[in-house]
Amino acid sequence: MKVHPTAIIGDEVKLGKDVEVGAFCVIEGKVEIGDRTKIGNRVTIKGKTKIGENCRIYDGAVIGEEPQHLRYEGEESEVIVGNNVLIREYVTIHRGTKIDKMKTIIGDDVMLMAYSHVAHDCVVGRGVIMANCATLGGHVEVGEYSFIGGLSAVHQWARIGPYSMVGGLTGVSLDIPPFTRASGQHAQLYGVNTLGLQRRGFSSERIAVIKRAYRILFRSNLLRKEAIDILKKEFKDNEDVELLINFIESSKRGVARDAGA
């Protein structure tokens, strides 16, 4: 363990093996830091916060601060950060609220670039990348291996589906389905995230099925229910199509439309 002499570490804090803490850090409250995690300078970690192993937290990040919510009343909510998470300069991650999950969750292998923000009660899935200044409002769910471009903002309670890509400077107010690309001031869909799927090892045959399902859903001029009925018959027991259908059918805010619709 290597803790800089200027760092302030509270009595309740638990530091794992080979943890490094930089200069002028403040770590207080019921905080647990996993083995081999490295914390830069001037980092603040507070409240009930658990950070996994092999994480890297850069200068100025603030993790576990009170949520920016007028109905927060001091309840002991928490932040949970997984393993192998990269948290760059001045990232902010806030605790949950009793209005929702009472926790904010960051999955394994996530990368949060500089100045990005994860608000209260958000769930960020495994392998997600949030680029510089990307912002999640409260209660947002981000599916695994999705990408959110720089200076983008996601509205409260919206969802970003797994393996999707949100372009930079995008405003997301409706749900973004799995496997898709979205962009624009009011996000619209621009087809399937082909390059992202290839990078995750999806075969050309698997991607072709997803593209076929996308065309039926968003470019066939069918009613959404009619399109889903066709998919259920044509691609019965296909896990990717089932994920797409379940995501759309469970949407509460509504789903973004194709840019050509």
TrEMBL record:
Q: Which GO terms describe its biological process?
A: lipid A biosynthetic process
What GO CC terms are in its UniProt record? Answer: cytoplasm; membrane
Q: What class of enzyme is it?
A: transferase
Domain UDP N-acetylglucosamine O-acyltransferase C-terminal: where? Answer: 175-255
Which reactions appear under catalytic activity for this entry?
a (3R)-hydroxyacyl-[ACP] + UDP-N-acetyl-alpha-D-glucosamine = a UDP-3-O-[(3R)-3-hydroxyacyl]-N-acetyl-alpha-D-glucosamine + holo-[ACP]
UniProt subcellular location: Cytoplasm
Q: Which PROSITE patterns match?
A: HEXAPEP_TRANSFERASES (PS00101)
The Enzyme Commission number assigned here is: 2.3.1.129
- What protein is this chain from? Acyl-[acyl-carrier-protein]--UDP-N-acetylglucosamine O-acyltransferase
What organism is this sequence from? Hydrogenivirga caldilitoris
Its organism's taxonomic lineage begins at: Bacteria, Pseudomonadati, Aquificota, Aquificia, Aquificales
